Structures are given as structure tokens and as C-alpha cells.
Amino acid sequence: MLKNYFLVALRNLRHNKLFSLINILGLAIGISASLVIFLIVQYDFSFDRFEPDGDRIYRVVSDNVYQGNTGHTRGTHALLADVAKKELTGADLVVSFRYYNAGKLVVPGNEAASPSAGPGTNPANPATFHNPKHLIFADEAYFKLLPYQWLAGSPATALAEPGRVVLSESRALLYFPNQPLNSIVGRTLTYDDTLTAQVTGVVRDFDSLQRTDFNFKEFLSLATVLDNPALRKQFYWDKWSATSSDQQLYLRLGKGVKPAAIEAQLKAFCNKYEGESEKKNNFTETWRLQPMSDLHFNRDYGNFNVELADKPTLYGLMLIAAFLLLLASINFINLTTAQGTQRAREIGIRKTLGSTRRQLVLQFLSETFLITLAATMLSILLTPLLLKAFADFIPTGLHFSLTQPFLTVFLGLLVLLVSLLAGIYPALVLSSSKVLVVLKNQAYAGTAKTRGAWVRQGLTVSQFVIAQFFIMGALLVSKQIRYMLDKDLGFNKEAILSFQLPYRDTSMLRRVYMLDQVKRLPGVRMASLANDVPFGWGWWTQGMEYKDGKKDIQLAMEMKAGDPNYLRMFRIPLLAGRDLLPNDTARELVINEAAVHALGFRQPQEAIGKMINWDDRLMPIVGVMRDFHAHALSFEIKPMALCRMMNRANDLIVTLRTKGEGGGHGEDWQGTIAAMKTLFASTYPQDEFSYNFLDESIANSYNGQQRISRLLRWATGLTVFISCLGLLGLVIYVTNRRTKEIGIRKVLGASVTQITAILSKEFLLLVAIAFAIATPLSWWATHAWLQDYAYKTTLSWWVFALGGGALLLIALIVICLRTFRAATANPVKSLRSE
């Protein structure tokens, strides 16, 4: 019986090639998009799911509030780990580690391993690696937290003493190529010319299925820090006032222990050890527990050089997948029911010969299953193309392979789900026809306002609601992105690049030397030393106090440090007063307009000469600069001060000459950059030269919004295409049902234009209804999205009108193509049976 179902299904698909092709194509688009989205979602939600007792592992994070400004950091105080080990109850494992930014690593007697080593090098000489990544100071507790497999050494003793290091397998093979792992144990590594560590173990790297945010490759013994006064001072190890994102603390809670109980103890520790400091400095700090399952998604706290996922984006992708599958299923339903008039006699004959409704339902479901199976096979071929189209959303490490067990299970379930979702309604409708009616070929006799007609029209309206929602959303998101890219940020950003000088090198002589040499280059118009460009990634905030005689005003002031060229380079005008005098230390301040208003002044001139207390030092305000956007437009302009604190100025910012200024674009710029790279290499031979153009950095800061925009454009194109296929199905259904009416109208003298208008009016009304429903929905969604931006575009009426008009035009073209064909058909053929 089952074999017969499939044979009949294959015959019907072969006899209706056009409908079958449209159905397969529509379902293939929905399934392939869903498959890509499933791969992305499954990849991101699989992070750190392999650790034993992972549901009991938490990271201790810090939240702080100062002058109404909230801050978050993934780190804590170094001393908190000692307190937790001694005083905290309810945790069966306390793990503390410290991230380490090494500038240089030397492997003695192993020059053959050096990336820069060439042919003929002497293996007896050391190999040097600049800026090795993913280093931490840890102890044996770290390896109890994560299930590393040890290839050499012992986890109990490898990090027990100072001056010890454990390497991952990949890092061991990099430093000691072609050497057995056991022979590496006992070798020494030297970090930054001052710290020497002996290799005491090697662990296997996590495989591709063990996805984790713990991407560390070298593990130095934590005892090295504890035993080294210079490192303790460098890391502020003994100060409760120092919180660093590099200092990590993890807790594995005992079974049955609630996170709230631990957080209550952490609050008590904060009051005990930081209470006086909080009162003195007028800030509050709270230590919280962050679940391990949240590490890969929480951007407030972040991680170490790991590409984080965004849960709202993932949920949005899942919603898009559901919409596309729903649209494809609606499209299938409309096309199948439209085709039902051609199978009316077949249904009647089958019922006359004894077929039950159950058998007919199974017959139609088997046809749906074959179409879905063909669509799935096509989607497998389309998936690599869609992975390229969604390249901005594809995480590093994600790959598509049918050998993945979870993928095979997902495809199998998807085939069954889509077959049932798309096939059950047409099967029930087509199998419910009465025998006498269908044998007269009157399966759809009666008024057009039947329940079936309302269902089909409702499905079509829902398709176009979704399509118009995506069109309007895509237009408004693009409008906001264009607004952000085109908005005047309050400073010059053209032809400006910056590169960072090594922060470990505190020599002002070398910094000034680099500045002077760069200024001498022919292609350089101006150069400046500063801590950051105006639109930077970093935040440097200082607490300041102003006494106006009546009350004390305390401000959290964002700081910039720059030399006398800083304001001139970025063309930031002074509204009152003067610029700062040349100096190496902060002795006076220039503030922005936001700070003027926060201090209670109405006009910039009123702030000149007023004294502000900064770290128990009174400093005069000598100038007021115009407000500018120091961060993305999602942040408001906050009070800011410019100072001459040159020990923090390790960014060298350069304005390049443009055409007409003695320099030029293209190769001239590249030549100037090459000269700067040479100067950098001669001054800092152990560091790498890396530069960024300011305008490109600003554009890149909106990459997330750009990705959302591209995603919406793709989703819009797919939804419009599938919706038009659904509309085509309804048009075919109506024109087939009204064939005799069209013939009679033509015989009575109706023109092709009149008949086309009569047939199109009903469908255009459906699109208009969809527009009326989609407009408030899209307005609400985009309005909510724009609330994340302090500076945003307006929700212009023309965006909604353009979206509705574009879809109406597309629908009109689809409708006219089919109705014109029906209107121009020979009426004799349609009336032959009368």
C-alpha cells in the first residue's frame, strides 16, 4: 500500500511539473535558510556545554555605580580569591587566574621554530615570538574546572611551584617543532626578558566539538606572581581598590547551593573589605555570579579575544527561519489547493472505488513528503551558497557536513515537520469533497466567500504582512545606519590614522622622538600624541568635584589626554577660553559643553577660571570645547575633560596630506605609512606596527548594525519571493475557478483591461489589508529598536509608504501576468462544456 502511495505521488508530480517545481523551489528556500540558521544557533548555544557540572559553575563579576553611571567588568580584585578560599562556604571549588599580556617570548636554543627564522639559521640560537596570545597565570584548580587531557606532566604538581608553565599541544609544537612531547618537559621559556619558566606539562587542545570561551594556550604557575614582588605590584595584587578584567574568579557551587546564598556572602565580603573605600570615594560595587552558560553571550562582561554571540540576534534568526518555513508552507497550501480543481474527478473516482478519507489523506501527504524530500535535497546543495551569503553571521569554526549526527537528525525532523505542516490542510480539504460534486467537476462550485476561500485569502494576507514587515524594517534599519554614518560627529575624521606605541615602554624620550620623526615625513600634515582618538573604544573616567558655594557637585568625567595639536588636528573648536599650555602633567583642564551644563553653568564663558578638585588637586578650567561624539551614537555625550597627562599618551595620531597639499592618495599614502613602519621598527624592534584609519574605525563600529541590515535584506528578498509564489497560487486558483465567468464576460463584450482589473481588484485588496496590518507592527518594532540609540533617525512616513508601494508593485506585476493570460484566453474553450 505504501509503495502504491509513492508511485501515484510520483506520477502526479510528473504530470504537474510546473506546480511541482514551484513547490519544491519555495520549500527549498525555506528549508535551506532554516538549515543555515540552525547551524549558527546550534554552534553558539553549544559553547561550554561539555564541562562536568557546568550548571554549577559561575564567574564572579563586578558591577559598580558612580555618580549615576553604571559600569560592568568581568574581573574582580586579586585579594577576593584568597578571601573566597578561606571564608566562603557553599563552593566546592574556587578557581582564580590572571590573564597575561606578554610582549615577547624567547625559546632558548630553538631558532628553527621562529616564524622569522630563514634558511641557514643556527639552531643553537633562541627563537623569538612577539606578543604571544592566550597566556594566563593559574594553578592546579584551573584544571579541575575544565576537563583537559594531559599528554605530559602531572596536573597535581605541574603548577605547584613558581617559574613553571604548562603548554597546550598546539603551542608546544609551535615552540618545539618535531620534538616528542615528553622531551619538552624541562625546557625553559623566557617572557619579556625577565620571567623564566620551566615547561612541566602538556595538555591536549580541545577538539572542534568541545567549543569553549576558555581559549588559553599557555598556563604559567600562579605561584610565580605570588612569589614575585614586581609582578604583585604590576598587577595591584595587594590592593582592594584595584579591579581588573584580567583577574578572573570562578566558583563551582556545591550540589543544592543556591547562587543567591553565595551572592549574599560576597556582599558581606564587599562591606567588610571595601566599605570604607566606597564611602570615601562615593561609589558602590557589587559582586555577582554569572552562569557559565551566559559567558558566550553577555557583552556587558565579555571574554578574552573570543567572538561573542548575541542572543537577541540568534532569537531573531530563529524567528526568521520560522517565518520562512511558514511562508513556504503557506505557499505550498495555496498552490496545492489551487491545483485541486484538476484532480476533482480523480478524487471522486477513488472514493467511488472504495477509497477511504484516511487513504486519500495518506496519498496527499505522501506527495507532500516527496516534494519536501526533493526540496531538502536541493536545500543541501543551496546551503554552501547561503553560508557565503550569511558570511557576516557565520562564526569562525562553523562548518557544514552531513556527517554531523545532529545535522542528520535535524534534517529528518525538518522533513517530517514541513511535510505535516504544509500537507495536512490540503490533504484534509481535497479528501473531504463529496463524490457527486467532484464527478461533475464542481469541486469548487458556490460563492467565492466560502470558508476555504477565506482561509486561502487569510493565508495570503499573512504572507504579505510578514513580507511588508521585513521590507519596512530593512528600510528603517538602513535609514538609521545611513544617519549614523553621515552624522556630523563634531570632529574631523578624514585622512587621519593612528597607531599605538608600546604601553610597556614608559620612555617619553622615545615617544617624543617618534613624534618628531613622523612630523618630518613629507606626507604628514600634522601629528599628535594622545591617549586616544576622539571616537575611541576605550573609556577613561575620573571622579571630580566642584564646590559652587552652596553645594558640592560631583561628576564622573570622561578624560582625554593630548598634546597641543590634538584639538587643532580634529578641528574641535573652543567656545570659550584658551587651549591647554604645553606640559607633561595635568595642571589645568579644558571641558566640553556637557560638563559646563552638568556643573550648573548656562554659558561656556561662566566656567572659565572655576576650580575643580581632581584627586585632591585643584585645577582651573581654562577652556570649553564644543561637544563631540566620543563613542557610538548609542551613547549620549557625557561630561568630558581634556588634560596634558602625557604619561598616558601612547597613541600617535597622524593627519596625512591630501591632493593639493603636497602629498596625495594611493601610493603616496602607502609610502608615508611604510616610512612610519620603518621608524617604528627602528625605535621599537620587539613590537609590531599596526595602524587604523579613523573613518574606517568609525564605520567598523557599526558592523553589528550593518550585519542586521544585510540580514534583513536577505530575509526580505526571500519572504517577498515566497509570498509572490503564494499569491501566484491564489491567482491560479481564482482564475481556474472563474474560467467560465471570464469566457462569458468576453462574449458579452468585456475588454482584456476590464477583465484584468476585475480579477486583480480582489488581490490588490489583500495586499492593502496586509499593508494596514504590517505598518503599525513594523513601526512598533523599529521604534523599540531605535530606543537603544541616544541619537536616532526619524520614523518618516515615506519609509512605510515606500515599503507598501514597492510590495504592491511587485504583487501587481505577478497578478497581471496571470490574469492577463486568463483574460486573453479563447472563450470558446472555457464554454465548451456548457
UniProtKB/TrEMBL annotation:
Leader sequence residues: none
Q: Please list the residue ranges annotated as the ABC3 transporter permease C-terminal domain.
A: 319-432, 717-827
Which keywords accompany this UniProt record?
Cell membrane, Membrane, Transmembrane, Transmembrane helix
Q: Does the keyword Transmembrane apply?
A: yes
Entry keyword tRNA processing: no
One of its Pfam families is FtsX
By its UniProt entry, which InterPro entries does this protein fall under?
Answer: ABC3_permease_C, MacB_PCD, Macrolide_Exporter_MacB
One cellular component (GO) term of this entry: plasma membrane
**Where the protein is mainly located, per its record?**
membrane
Q: What stretches pass through the bilayer?
A: 21-41, 314-335, 360-386, 406-430, 459-477, 711-735, 763-785, 797-820
* Record membrane topology: Multi-pass membrane protein
- Subcellular locations according to the entry: Cell membrane
Enumerate the GO terms in the molecular function aspect. transmembrane transporter activity
Every copy of the MacB-like periplasmic core domain together lies at 20-268
| Protein name from the UniProt record | ABC transporter permease
**Which species is this record about?**
Puia dinghuensis
Upper lineage:
Bacteria, Pseudomonadati, Bacteroidota, Chitinophagia, Chitinophagales
